[in-house]
Amino acid sequence: MGLEQLRRDWTRLGSAEPLWAVCVDPGKRAGGWDDDEFLASGRAEIDPALARLEELGAQPGRGRVLDFGCGAGRLSNALAAHFERVDGVDISAPMLAEARRLDRTGGRITFHLNERPDLSLFEDDSFDLVYTDLVLQHLPPELAEGYLREFARVVRPGGALVLGVPESERRTFKGLVFRYAPWPLVALAQRVILRYPAPMRMHTLATERIAALVPQGRILASDEYWGGDHWRHLRHYVALEGEGTS
After folding, report:
1. How far apart are CA 221 and CA 193, in angstroms?
2. Which of 71, 78, 125, 161 could serve as a FRET partner for 119 with CA atoms 20 to 30 Å apart?
3. pTM for this model (two decimals)
4. Burial letters for 123-139: b for 16+ Cβ neighbours within 10 Å, e otherwise?
5. Radius of gyration of the chain from its Cα atoms, rounded to whole angstroms
């Protein structure tokens, strides 16, 4: 799968079920997410994650933050309570239209459509923090790895990355299906049985690989969090070398 197929899939998902595609919950299909409930779920993630980053001794500035794979802006709005400026990036134009509709910050979030395999729309050292959660897993591994390198480039010395990714499949029926079943079969099951508007590919990313791709960073902690019965998800807190690290 290339970038163009990824764009097509998430454009379809953003057009059909933008909030559900961001937070997949069987009980929230067909417009089941209330806007305020959706945004509150973002605050429930961001507030403790940033507190955890501070607890680990990282002290990035609170000027500008990048929400990579921002989707409908669930986390962008929550990040705006902690940073002066938020930039949300996504590959799906319909997702970004929904994000602009849900912007509760009075314009302090700038949403960007990025259809490139890099973050060349941003200069080096532009951000105090890059935050991404359950996004890299949907990208082809080589593309996800390229974006990781870009995260390190656009974060200022002393800044930080918070990366939520699946480390591995769980040894359950669903987890083993994702690991061993051919992708066309998984995609067919998602479309026909689960009735997804478009398939959602899934890939894992090992902690050791993240460390190798961001050599100027130091992984302060890798905390396990929600993963259902499919995946073992880790949230990595990475401090970049420079002022603000301890």
Report:
1. 38
2. 78
3. 0.91
4. eeebbbbbbbbbbbbbb
5. 17
d(CA 107, CA 94): 18
Alpha-carbon separation of residue 87 from 77, 96, 218 (angstroms)? 10, 12, 24
**Is 109:77 a contact under the CB 8 Å cutoff?**
yes
User: Minimum mean pLDDT among 14-23, 51-60, 95-104: which range?
Assistant: 14-23
- Cβ(79)–Cβ(65) under 8 Å? yes
Which token pair is 58? 């990282």
Q: How far is Cα 226 from Cα 88, in angstroms, rounded to an integer?
A: 23
Q: Could you give the CA distance from residue 242 to residue 157 in angstroms, rounded to a whole number? A: 4
Q: 100 vs 76, 89, 146, CA distance in Å? A: 10, 12, 27
What lies within 8 Å, CB to CB, of 17 at 6+ separation is 29, 30, 197
How many Å apart are CA 219 and CA 210, to the nearest integer?
9
Distance CA 36, CA 123 (A): 34
Q: What is residue 90's three-state secondary structure?
A: strand
Which of 15, 4, 1, 120 lies closest to 71, judged by CA? 15
**Amino acid residing at 167:** E
What pLDDT score was predicted for residue 28? 74
pLDDT class for 246, splitting at 50, 70, 90? Answer: very low
Q: Express the helix, strand and coil content of the chain in percent, nearest 5 each.
A: 40, 25, 35
Which pLDDT band holds residue 190 (cuts at 50, 70, 90)? confident
pLDDT tens sequence across 137-169: 899 899 999 999 999 999 999 999 999 999 887
Residue that the structure tokens 């040894």 belong to: 171
Better-predicted residue by pLDDT, 181 or 10: 10
